[in-house]
Write a structure and sequence with these properties.
- The chain is mainly α.
- It contains seven helices and no strands.
- α3 (57-67) packs across α4 (74-87).
Length: 139
Amino acid sequence: SLPGHGSVQNHLPMKKKQPMQRSPIDYFRIRELKRMYLPPATAAICSCSSLYTQLRLDNTCRNIRNRYSFDFDLNSILSDLIFARILSPSSKLSSYSFCKSLLEPPKYDIHQVYRALSVIAKENDYIQSDVYRNSNFVI
């Protein structure tokens, strides 16, 4: 402060502190952001799903289905088992539980997973050879 002039603060008008108010737009933005939030596993599944498609495992499952008569979706079960093993390695039952917690829960039952495993075991050599052949297209 300068001599004889008093404090500069004495001459400034005082502002009253008012409570901060949210506009309805802010509320709706926050609600929309919460709705758009995806768990980290979802982003990883998107990456895995892309690789799964590039390896043409969906076609492999279709070819296997044509050789057998079963009523479950082998493609969904195989992809879910692979994704669950990558993201949360555990037993088959725990993998099924993990898949139920994801954005899109499975549309099959646990007993269908066990039946699919026997088909996957029988077709193991075919699946491996198909993945190896199709891996040449992934770059």
